[in-house]
């Protein structure tokens, strides 16, 4: 069965973006970038990977899930940010159709369960926090790129979903000279 991985950058105080969706305080240079680019090439926007000469084989992920706000970061220029993947955007809006992007207002849990039952590589939850909270019971793996910065406010890594403890086991922790630490967990 396919797994859902929440792979996301996060501040020390638990935010994936600032209050207005800012993410420019995260480190985009340093020794962590080469390692993460090699391991998670499928999670790089298609046009960036092409410009960098990075091969995207869809071996780690072949599907990406996003909430509207995460998807909208690239608009209007990048309407199909992960064209090499199946892209599912959860929204209550009625956006114009975009080739390669499935917009849906379906229940995220139902969609993920259907995707997990299909053949394929992993499913990547790109963001945001509210979508992650709604999918908390379906997340199989967490890969948190903890950046050495405090935001003070913003979009939490998980939005509010009520008190429902879920145990995870740490499977790896990799500290880089840049100050970024990648923490990996799987559902206990």
TrEMBL record:
This is Dihydrofolate reductase. Pfam families: RibD_C. Residues 4-180 form the Bacterial bifunctional deaminase-reductase C-terminal domain. GO terms for biological process: riboflavin biosynthetic process. It comes from Microbacterium azadirachtae. PANTHER family: 2,5-DIAMINO-6-RIBOSYLAMINO-4(3H)-PYRIMIDINONE 5'-PHOSPHATE REDUCTASE, DIHYDROFOLATE REDUCTASE FAMILY PROTEIN (AFU_ORTHOLOGUE AFUA_8G06820). Coiled coil: none annotated. GO terms for molecular function: 5-amino-6-(5-phosphoribosylamino)uracil reductase activity.
């Amino acid at each position: 069965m396919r797994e859902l991985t929440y792979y996301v950058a996060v501040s020390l105080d638990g935010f994936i973006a600032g209050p207005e969706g800012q993410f420019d305080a995260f480190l985009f240079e340093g020794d962590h970038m080469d390692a993460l680019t090699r391991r998670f090439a499928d999670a790089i926007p298609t046009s960036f990977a092409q410009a960098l000469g990075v091969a995207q084989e869809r071996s780690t992920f072949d599907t990406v899930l996003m909430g509207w706000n995460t998807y909208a970061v690239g608009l209007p220029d990048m309407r199909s940010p992960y064209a090499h993947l199946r892209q599912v955007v959860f929204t209550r809006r009625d956006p114009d159709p975009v080739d390669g992007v499935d917009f849906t207002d379906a229940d995220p849990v139902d969609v993920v369960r259907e995707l997990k039952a299909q053949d394929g590589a992993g499913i990547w939850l790109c963001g945001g926090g509210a979508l992650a909270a709604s999918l908390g019971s379906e997340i199989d793996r967490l890969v948190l790129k903890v950046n050495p910065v405090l935001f003070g406010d913003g979009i939490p890594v998980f939005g509010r979903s009520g008190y429902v403890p879920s145990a995870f086991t740490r499977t790896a922790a990799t500290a880089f000279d840049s100050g970024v630490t990648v923490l990996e967990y799987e559902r206990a």
